[in-house]
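ESCALATION

Customer reports they have been waiting on this structure for their group meeting. Please prioritize. Original submission:
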Amino acid sequence: MARDAGLREVYIWAVNAEQQATPQQITKAIEFVKANKVPAVFCESTVSDAPMRQVVGATGSTFGGVLYVDSLSESDGPVPTYLDLIRHDSKIITEGLTGAAS
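Update from on-call: job pushed to the front of the queue and completed.
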């Protein structure tokens, strides 16, 4: 999705990594957000948002929300199907990067 929208994806750790964020990984993300004036950062649904919230606190960026990258929610949740995932993530990214209200 990032490629198709002409965006550059930067992350603290790879999706589905079985690790915690290191101080060096968080520092690199902070430096990128500051250098590129990134208006919002996002977190994948299956990991803690705490590292991204550290990036927000250090940069003045906003927390844009939770994205579903490779997992769906329960049937009564926000993304029970793949099409719902695309709609949800597109909306969250657009609102986060443009400053639009939810």
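Sent to customer with the following note: Residues 30 and 36 are 10 Å apart (CA to CA).
Escalation resolved.
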